[in-house]
Amino acid sequence: MTIHTAETTSRFIEINGLNIHYHDTEVGDRVLVMLHGGGPGASAWSNYRTNLPAFAATYRVIAFDAPHYGESDKPLSAYQDTDFYTEVFSQALDKLGVKRADFIGNSMGGTISMTMAMKRPDLVAKLVLMGPGGSPTMFTPMMTEGIKILGAFYQGEGPTREKLEAAVRIMVYDQSMVTPELIEARYQAATHPDLLKPREWKGHPMLNLWERLVGSPLQNPTLLIYGKEDRVIPWDTSLLLMRLLPNASLHVFPQCGHWAQLEKASEFNTLVHGFLEQSDD
């Protein structure tokens, strides 16, 4: 039995002069792409370490570090530009010979997944979106508590461990998940020297995604997943998406925050496996 770890699945690919890091299990007739969120210190493995091994028995799993994250290059331009990230991942999948794949996207990764489905419908089969960015809240005041904390990390006096701990704690309902080791690992990743250079935020495509969905509704079978206690992108953002995505279903986990794939890992893996294995008929 193959054991899939961060080290054994680690790969690099060059896209338009950028060195992009990704994890690849390499075996499987169906491809499952995992895209992480945009919080400080995020990476493919940190987001999906409890999920990638579970899906590797059935799928070839590919999990990318977006530019500016993980071990991928960190250019001065296009920080959190989900249109740019979509183009990078699209070219990477073409280069890897992937013709069609299912996509799992958390937060910013959910935005990228929907953008990919709009721009490359040939490439995208089913969508699993956990707390995806791009839809307004219906009941919760904007900006949300979590978005304010995440947005402040690089502002003011700059990054601190205290800010990083606040950013991680806002992500989860179960506070026991927040360990000193997790905080230190995310802090080291979030304070890479290349990330401390002045840059312009380019996350605007993430904010107006719902407007583009009005003009080009996605027909992909879609599973929306939220934590009931998500304080970053709360479940009520799903209400507009349920109107705009005609083939979408919704699952809300109780006692769960923004990291449903980690907080509810076993239930999440079972739920998503079932959805992906359903016939499209």
Automatic annotation (TrEMBL):
Keyword Chaperone in annotation: no
Lineage of source species: Bacteria, Pseudomonadati, Pseudomonadota, Gammaproteobacteria, Pseudomonadales
GO molecular function: hydrolase activity
Bilayer-spanning residue ranges: none
Entry keyword set: Hydrolase
Domain called AB hydrolase-1: residue spans: 31-265
Protein's name according to its UniProt entry: Alpha/beta hydrolase
Top-level division of the source organism's lineage: Bacteria
Organism of provenance: Pseudomonas beijingensis
Stored InterPro entries: AB_hydrolase_1, AB_hydrolase_fold, Epox_hydrolase-like
Keyword presence, DNA damage: no
Gene3D superfamilies with a match to the protein in the record: alpha/beta hydrolase
